Amino acid sequence: MELGLDKRACLGRAKEALQRGADPDLRYACLELRFCMEALAYAKLREYQDRVPATLLETWQPRIMMRALLELEPGSASDRVTRIREQTGDGTPGRVVLEGQHKALSLAVVNKHYDRLGSFLHVPTLKMQSNPGALRSRYDTLRRTLQDVISLLDPPVASGFSGHMAELFHFDCFGCQQRSITNARVATSSGKAACIHCGVEHQVKVHADGTPEFIHDFLTARCASCDGDVPLAVGTLKLGMTFACPACGAAHKVHTHVWEYSSEGERGTSATERKASV
Fold this sequence. Notes:
Elements: H1 7-20, H2 23-48, H3 62-72, E1 80-87, E2 93-102, H4 107-118, H5 126-129, H6 132-158, E3 168-172, E4 179-183, H7 184-190, E5 192-194, E6 201-206, E7 212-215, E8 218-222, E9 229-233, E10 242-244, E11 251-253, E12 258-261, E13 274-277
Antiparallel strand pairs: 1-2, 3-4, 5-6, 6-7, 8-9, 10-11, 12-13
Helix pairs in contact: 1-2, 1-6, 2-3, 2-4, 2-6, 3-4
């Protein structure tokens, strides 16, 4: 179904509305430029959707989505030039056979302008309406702002080349047991990696030979039926979850969270130790 939400279509309608120039047209241009930012942000997310948590694909706010994407893929909002060269007989780079330039929508542009444009999609407050001169000045300023935003969005909208590349680590998630992937550079520097399917976080240890090891904390629950040990991944625990005993198959359900705390510096059970349950 064609909804007219393509980034080029949105930007084109914004330019046409600004050219017409009436106040209602300016408000319409604000809407189309916000749509354009969202379309650019979603297009970027689509490039990386194979290695980001599934929950991120459900996020509609471009600012939140882009901030999360940058944490997972630091280079995702950077301009870049990609060149592919022939390899000569002696292994040295030869002539360029492909060159592509990518212009990205930056988080700074979204942070500065997305909500600002959105403020014109509401009827002015009574206080603002009580000062017609200031309201008129605000709309005159909006014309210049719209032109600035259009200039900022033109390059990423026109860019049709991506060329993003990254080294990946593959690992089996301790939470959902599915095969997952993560950016190798980010995982190495942060020492953490989240499963793209269930979001369970793992510790990452990269050995001297570059081989990664993915570690997760476990606790042992006691089966209420056979009194056997049931290993549970800490990151999967949440109220309402169910699990089965591997020995007897008895089903269990988590219904309470308990935190223990005591006066700073104390260890073990003491008169000042307390428990909090949810």
